[in-house]
Amino acid sequence: MSAKTERFEMRLDEGLLEKIDNWRERQNQQPSRAEAIRTLVELGLSGTDLAIRPNGHDRLMMWMMAEVLKQQKGSEGKDTAKLVQQAIYGGHFWALEWQLRGILHSSLDSPEDVKFVVDVLDMWDFIEISYSKLSASEKDKIEAAVGPIGRNPKFIGFDGNNETELMSIATFLVRDLNRFSHFSERSFNSHMPKADRYRKMLDQFEPMRRDLLGIDLDADQIIRLLQRD
Predict the structure, then answer these.
(1) Do 120 and 167 contact (CB within 8 A), yes or no?
(2) How many CB atoms lie within 10 A of CB 180?
(3) Got the DSSP string for 75-113?
(4) At what angle do helices 56-71 and 78-90 cross, to 10 degrees?
């Protein structure tokens, strides 16, 4: 049974119709205007990026920039410049998406993920620095209360397989933005999911954080946090 459809009328100015027609002409099986508009609406609502289809001006600029790169002495980007030019000559722009996936992607860090990672790094920064200042007896008390994880507790990152975005944000914050330099030598790959555990720890840490202006966590606070890890 075909999906129920509803007819409606819309009016478009000549400039927008021209853009739609130009898009139609670039498709392998040229759709009607109605089909093209339906496809573009669906792509827009789904958040799917349209394939790279540069116009004449864009192609010329891409070719010229690639040519400049090729002329640079000792340039490591000559192979990429050659690929770009071959894609322009042959119209193989899909190849750029395949080969330059690290550049031509639609991935964006969500503000929620960034805030979460910053909060986690802030919490572990407090835990590690505070722990380092405790006496031997206080460190023994922590280990006795929480077991092996209480012996020199360290932030071990996020799971590289299941928490890739969070691991990437943490790595970028520390290594590229030089924030939380205390963690600069870490791999940030925990090799096991940690986000849910960190959230439980943050539930305990956030009320503590308000009172930590200029002071460190004590042994009992660290125990309460690690018990949630």
Answers:
(1) no
(2) 19
(3) -TTHHHHHHHHHHHHHT-HHHHHHHTTTTS------HHH
(4) 150
Q: How far apart are CA 225 and CA 125, in angstroms?
A: 13
Overall residue count recorded for the chain in this entry: 229
Q: Answer for the pair 226, 142: CB distance below 8 angstroms, yes or no.
A: yes
- For residue 211, what are the CA distances in angstroms to 129, 157, 185, 206? 16, 26, 29, 10
- Are the CB atoms for 226 and 146 separated by under 8 Å? yes
What is the crossing angle of helices 219-226 and 111-132, to 10°? 140
Q: What letter represents residue 206's amino acid? A: E
The Cα–Cα gap between 105 and 108 comes to 9
161 DSSP 8-state letter: T
Q: Which amino acid is at 228?
A: R
Give residue 147's pLDDT band: very low, low, confident or very high (50, 70, 90).
Answer: very high
The better pLDDT of the pair 188, 10 is held by: 188
**Closest residue by Cα to residue 221 from 157, 133, 114, 156:** 133
**pLDDT tens, residue by residue, 92-103:** 877 887 777 767
The pTM (predicted TM-score) of the whole model is 0.63
Phi, psi of 89 (to 5 degrees): -60, -45
Q: What is the DSSP string of 150-212?
A: GSS-----B-TTT-HHHHHHHHIIIIIS--SGGGTT---B-SS--HHHHHHHHHHHHHHHTT-
Secondary structure letter of residue 152 according to DSSP: S
Q: Do 180 and 173 touch, CB atoms closer than 8 A?
A: yes
On whether the CB atoms of residues 174 and 180 are closer than 8 A, the answer is yes
